[in-house]
Amino acid sequence: MIEQKKNRLFVVLAGIFLTNAIVAELIGVKIFSGENSLGLQPANLHILGFTMDFNLTAGAVIWPVVFITSDLINEYFGKPGVKRISYLAAIFIAYSFLVIFMAMKLPPAQWWLEANNKDGSGNFFDMDFAFNKILGQGQRIIVASLAAFLIGQLIDVFVFQKLRKLTGSKMLWLRATGSTLVSQFIDSFVVLYLAFTGIFSNQQILAIGITNYLYKFSVAILLTPLIYFGHYIIDGYLGKADAEKLSEESAQQSSSFF
């Protein structure tokens, strides 16, 4: 019975992780104003000689779900569970972009173009161009995003398990939030340097990375109670004793980095 529950739990957590990781990558092409979304004035932060606002990718809205799910998988299924689902997510994300690229190459039907050639104000536009512009992302950005995702996940699981060994079953907030803060710090700069070196100056990349990390840092702290809520739900589903046993077993997994 407990094995069935464990398998179901992993399938559900994996499904949540994969869905949000893929969707976040696809919607990440849109940049939105964090301040305007909250009805606030632009931050106008002065960083390394640049005036920076919290202009974020739309994917940032749901990436916190990926953080939380990753930590829950880490807690109950250990390093092997997180590595397995991280590699699978990278493969699925790459597959999604490949399918989108193929779809962009398909010749559009004329009636489809004509039926969708005006916006709400009656202005003409090219629907096929819009489709390709929205869904198409540069190959360099895709590669950078995938690389940063995998590096961030591997570092997250490494830091999480190191803190787990130091704190035991106590101080959940430290290993969950701490691992996210470390991994997202590295992720924030890896993706920018891989994607924009030679396009932006080092100072610009650092300024953008600092702004992005400030957002991720704040979100990680604010989401800490949700980690405890997730544990409460899982403990109730598995049973307190079995949940603690599963967590202890995950902590005893191999300590190798890869």
Overall description:
Helix content is 74%, strand content 5%. It has 258 residues and is mostly helical. It has one domain (2-251). The protein has a two-stranded antiparallel sheet. A hairpin with a 2-residue loop joins strand 2 (45-47) and strand 3. Helix 3 (63-105) packs antiparallel against helix 6 (139-167) and helix 7 (172-196) runs antiparallel to helix 8. It is globular, with a radius of gyration of 21 Å.
Tell me the overall shape: globular
CA radius of gyration: 21 Å
What distance lies between the first and last C-alpha atoms, to the nearest angstrom?
32 Å
The total count of strands amounts to 4
Biggest sheet strand order reads: 1-4
Order of helices and strands: HEHEEEHHHHHHHH
Q: Proportion of β residues? A: under 5%
Helix content: over 70%
Q: How many DSSP helices?
A: 10
- Main sheet makeup: 2 strands, antiparallel
Count of spatially separate domains:
1
Oligomer category: single chain
